[in-house]
Amino acid sequence: MATFLATLLKEQKPNFAFLLILFVGCSIFLLLVDHIYNIINMLQSIAQKANVNMVYLETILKIIGIAYIAEFASQITKDAGQGSLASKIELAGKILILAMAIPILTVMIEMILNLIPS
User: Is 26 or 89 the better-scoring residue by pLDDT?
Assistant: First the structure.
């Protein structure tokens, strides 16, 4: 319904159409916050049962959060007609994800090297 309204508004009032899309997108995210919270709690419970270091789980959850936020910001920026800026947001998100993943990758490589006989 929001898409239909935004399409109608876009011809007459493009600023209002953008604000409508932004409002609906944020509203959808806020409606899903409880589900996200439940998923995070479930993952923490599983990680504790499996004796996984919580630092790794927290890092992975942060990486997932960065990916979702970067995608959301990129889509909003594209809706505003700023495709060039949207691609920069996507690049920044990817670089942040890579930077946060380096400690996990380092531990994995060290573990693999320890398994290989000398």
Answer: 89
Mean pLDDT value of segment 87-92: 96
Query: How far is Cα 89 from Cα 71, in angstroms, rounded to an integer?
Result: 8
Calpha distance 7→10 (Å, rounded): 5
- Distances from the Cα of 100 to the Cα of 1, 61, 62, 67, 84, angstroms: 38, 11, 8, 12, 25
96 has a pLDDT exceeding 90: yes
Collapsing DSSP to helix, strand or coil, 29 comes out as: helix
The tokens describing 78, both together, are 């594209």
* Domain ranges across the chain: 1-52, 53-118
Q: Rounded distance, CA 2 to CA 26, Å?
A: 13
**Interatomic CA distance for residues 110 and 88, integer angstroms:** 33
